[in-house]
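Researcher: Go.
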Amino acid sequence: MEVTRIFDLLDRFESNFDKAVLFGGKVDGLWQRYSTKDYIESATDISYGLMKLGIVPGDTIISITNNRPEWNFLDMGIMMCGAIHIPVYPNISTDDYKFIFNHSGAKVVFVSGEELYARIKEVLPHCKSIEKLYTFRNLHGIEHLKELIDLGSKNRQPEKLKVLKDRINPNDVATIIYTSGTTGTPKGVMLTHKNLLSNIEAIYTIPPLNSELVALSFLPLCHVLERIVNYMYQYNGYTVYYVDNIATVSDAIRETNPFIICTVPRLLESIHDKIMATGRKLSGIKRMFFYWAINLGYRYKIEGNNPWYRFQLWIVRKLVFEKWKDALGGQLDIIVSGGAALQERLARIFWAAGFRVIEGYGLTETSPVITVNNFSPGAIEFGTVGPTLFNTEIRIADDGEILCKGTNVMKGYFKDEEQTKQMFTHDNWFKTGDIGIITAKGHLKITDRKKEIFKTASGKYVAPQVIENKLKESPFIEQAIVVGDNQKYPAAIVSLNFFHIKTWCEAKKFPFTSNHEAVNNPVVRKRIAKEIEKVNATLGEHERIVKFELTDNAWSVETGELTPTLKLKRKIICEKYSSLIEKLF
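Model: Structure:
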């Protein structure tokens, strides 16, 4: 059947994928599974329940929850009755919650449990539009999602719901996603059913069309990348298991044996770091073989590997990389990477180990995918984010900015026509704010953020993100920010990978007592200087890092340096470490 609104996926399921196990999520440590029938009935009863509460088309409803099967029930239930779903990150600030609640005019809020309820409890009295609050887990004195489902099951109005669904147009707003950005107030990106479905249409054939496959979902479903991939899984009829705590991902992978996952580069870096830490503890022949295998992986190519290399790789896969496969469930094949730049060496070594890693590019405003590496001939090029989707266009502006046009581009920013206008050129191309080039193979390569490029006192332009990504290729460096606007030279503030530093110190027989002592240890600083010099050797003279300072804390969303999608909050970092920046210059 034709899918023209997101909730039409339910009819597609009913026609094509009547499965005993469609979704799975853990409750008190045990996997709870849901069938196609459970999905359709629960989503429909949520629609009936919302209708009974007086929700009408165009009303906004917020969810704040970790990943769980019920997220889908709620998502479809909201959209079927014409309301607009606003999924919100569980880890944003109280001020952001307050702004989003009031700006969106939400009437109902769904929250996963006690911890998140505690975070918004003080905000609720300041948000006059909110009429009801529900939780996904039973809390004393607060209504539970099951109560809404029960309300709907007792007040079913199929004729009225059919009329509401029939009136919903593909160009109607399906969701509003508030993007935190690296500075400023959150903006509400309005995405229509057509926006989202255009992306599904362009990507669903990348993985196999086999409804027996299993996917694992652990990136936040409030993020548009995980959400669109989640819809793709459903379009293809996959069984999807959801992880509500990223700390348990490793266990979930072993328990569910997924074929495909979507992740951010940080997880792949973490896996790689732990493997390298194990290798450093080896000695003699075992150590030599380990590093030979790793370096062989770093040299992997999609095409053109000579027979001698392929023979060596066959040996390494049997003796080393097969253990990686086993550790990740044994069935994992496709890894979708997004949200940030993936180090080229990581892509190569994971491909060498037998995992097909595909990297894409896009923004919330583009639903999100614009380009993606895929498995068509010649469609993988390490260091790029792949070719453009067939129903999307890109062009590079005179100043290097990537412009996009297509049915995936947002309807606009909620209640902000002026900001919406600023995001488009005079001939209606969306301005991504990213700088890039098209390679000889026709693939897009991102080089920087337009707003982040700065000029040194000598008048030379520096693209900091390029340098930062190179710095982060070092296993010693977790995050880095390059500064130097109107200064004589570029410099860097570096947040170390303290897990790696600790294992390196142990291997070198140096004491590691605390992060603070590590950043002040002359041996550690000398090693970081060596890592920076490696990067400097690849840069132009005006781009080279002249000085650096180390921080003794890891940067995170919770401590304020990173956005929920793990991008640097440059303004906040510069304010927080202003004293270190003064030392640099």
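Model: The first strand starts at residue 23 and ends at 27.
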